[in-house]
Structure formats: structure tokens, C-alpha cells
Amino acid sequence: MSKRKKAVHAARDKPTQARSLVGFVMGSNWNSVCCDGYTRLADNPEVLMAVWRIAELISSMSIRIMANTASGDVRIYNGLSRRLDITPNRYMTRKTMMAAILGTLLLDGSGNAVVWPKTTDGLLEELVPIPPSQVSFLPDGFGYRVQIGGVPYDPDSLLHFVLNPSTERPWLGTGYRVALKTVVKNLQQAGRTKNAFLSSEWKPSVIVKVDGNSDELTSTDGRRRLAEQYIKPFAPGAPWIIPAEQMEVVQVKPLSLNDLAISDSVKLDKQSVAAILGVPPYVVGVGSFNREEWNHFIATTIMPIVRGIEQEMTRKLLISPDWYISMNPWALYAYDVKDLSEIGSNLYIRGMMTGNEVRGWLHLPPKEGLDELVILENFIPQGMIGDQKKLNPTGGENSEA
């Protein structure tokens, strides 16, 4: 007998284990409390709030083509830059396309998002995001192939954005699904429990104790007649008149959500979601806005994702070695008008920005005469401090004659 047949017979002869399930029944709507099965990240409101905040911020950043020059990096304006920043395809703007890419990358794509750059005669015609349901990744030695609708493609011909690379397959993203699995399940269970508790019928505020020998208690109609006869008031606020030897009224305090400790558990789970996704806790409904925390979020969560997008676009879409893709993050930081005006004024009087550049920061129209760099008189090199007229009012060496 072959090893395979022995294994099959061994599996058949193996006794099956009887499994049992123990649960707690809470009223007639007990099934509304159960939260079994798989829960998608896209079905959790806290995860959605965090993900779409990240997507909204990154999709608001302009995509620029920069060129390295001897005097510094300058921005390039051409048809390719317009395609990337304004009209990536016929059906989307840059903001819509980037939001869709980020939603796929963080949610349904499990850390992977694929975009097809459609070209004609070497020119970029469109950027088409591929739905994650149509994409699969096939290992090929150290590398891989991207299969779209059953057709394999070379990854060099596609934009493949990756989040949290796998240690076994560095070209494949893993996303946040594993890290968020338990937290999302807990939040889903807490929501179901809260809804079931608020809609439960087992929350009486008054209990009336009646003599058990009464025949009225043996039927539903009898109990209804008893309540209407003694308990139901004939006018709002009217007192009850009940026989003392037959009935006793007991006031009870029903359980609240605080008694079930759901609020504390939900708060901890929301903070866990915020920590895993790297967003400030107030984004998921915990705490309040903090400027330093927000700026830290931009620098440590938004910018690493942006850097991956920039590098993938640069190596796949640009041919010139002196060009690179850059996305502008400055509009995302928490500034106010006072901060911008003070920074702009200091840069203006030091000759680092023109007046119109400062006005552009404040969203004001340009004015004539403010396109030149100016500098205050006393901002001079250290070696020329003694040459200032106010320190030598007689005119220096010529005045000694």
C-alpha cells in the first residue's frame, strides 16, 4: 500500500471530535449580539475615518516634476506634468485618482495598488487605476509577475505602490489587515452589543410584586387587566392606588453602558486603531485636536507613504536622470495666517523671498514692484561691518586729507 493510500485510510479512521458551543442568551434578540464571521476593514467606521483622512490629505498634494540644476532644483511645466497633476485620465482628476489609489492601498488592496500607465508612441496618455479584485501577484524566482484579469504583465510596465513590504516577498505589500484584525472585531462586537442593549426589551424601571395566588397572573389577558385596573393612571401624573396586601411596587435601576464597561473598551480599541494607522486619536473620535500632534502625523505617517509614491512614479514614468517626482506637503501642516506672515516677512527682509512670493503664501494677488529681492542695509558680511556710514560719518580715509 502506498504512503498516500495509508494517509487517506488514516484520515478516514481518525475519530471525529465532537465540538460544542456555549453561549449566553440575552432576551429574545440574543442573535443581534453575536458578531461572528469575517469583518472587512472597509466595514469598520473607525478604520474608514482614519484611512479616508490619509487619502484626502495625500490626494490634496500637487504632483510636480522637478529637475536638478547647478543652482538648485526647479519645477518643470510641460504636458507630462499636466497629465500627472491635473488630468491623469478622461474620467478622473488627480485628487480623485489619488484618493482611489490610497483607498486601495490601505484597505481592499492589502498594501498593494496597481496603476496601468497607458502610452501611445512613448507618450503617457492615461493613468488607469486597476480594481484590486482583478489583480493578483505571481512569484517568479526572486521577482514576480502581475496578473490582471488573468493576463500576466511585467511589473516594469505598471505602477505598483506597496505599503508595509512582506519579509518573505519584499515586492509584495501586507498593509494593516493582520494588525487590525482583532481590534476591528472588538469594535464590531462592541457596536453590536450596544445596539442590542439599547433595543432590548429587558429593561423595566418599575417592578410590581403581586400575590402569586391571584388567578389574574395565569394568562396574558389577566395580567393586562390587572395592570390597567391598578397601575395604568387615568391621567398623567396621577398616583397609583393599589391594595397593600396584594401588591408591592419596587423601583429598579437598569444597567447602563457604563456598567458594561463598553465605553472604556471602545476608547482603548479606537486608540489602538489610531496607533496602528498612525493618525491622531481625535481623527477616530478620541481626544481633541493638537497642532504638534497633527504636524507629527504629517511628518511620520503621510510623508513616508508619499515618498513611496514619488519614487515609484519617478523610476517608472521619467526617463531623464535629472528629473524626479515631488509632491508638495507644505499645505498639509497646521499653520495659521500669523505664522505664515511672520515667516514670510523674515524671509523677505533677508532677501530670500520676493514680496509677491510672500503674498502668494497668504493667497493675495501680486503687486508691481515686489518681484525683486531686497535686503536691509545692516545685513552685510561680517568683514564689512566697519565700512558702515553710521560708524564712519566723516567719510573714512578721504576725510583725513
Write down the Rg.
35 Å
Overall geometry:
flat
Taken as a percent bin, the fraction of beta residues is 15-25%
Task: Please summarize the sheet with the most strands.
Answer: 3 strands, antiparallel
Kindly name the structural category.
alpha+beta
Lateral strand order in the biggest sheet? 2-1-11
Poorly predicted sequence stretches spanning 5 or more consecutive residues: 3-35
Termini separation: 123 Å
Mean pLDDT: 79
H-E order: HHEEHHEEEEEEHEHEHHEHH
Structure description:
- By secondary structure, the chain is an alpha+beta fold.
- It is 36% helix and 15% strand.
- It has helices spanning 3-13, 45-59, 79-85, 94-108, 177-198, 220-231, 262-277, 291-317, 337-349, 355-361, and strands at residues 63-69, 72-76, 112-120, 123-129, 135-140, 143-148, 151-153, 159-162, 206-210, 247-251, 323-327.
- The strands form 4 sheets. Strands 2-1-11 form a 3-stranded antiparallel sheet.
- Strand 3 (112-120) and strand 4 (123-129) form a beta hairpin.
- The radius of gyration is 35 Å and the shape is flat.
- The termini are far apart.
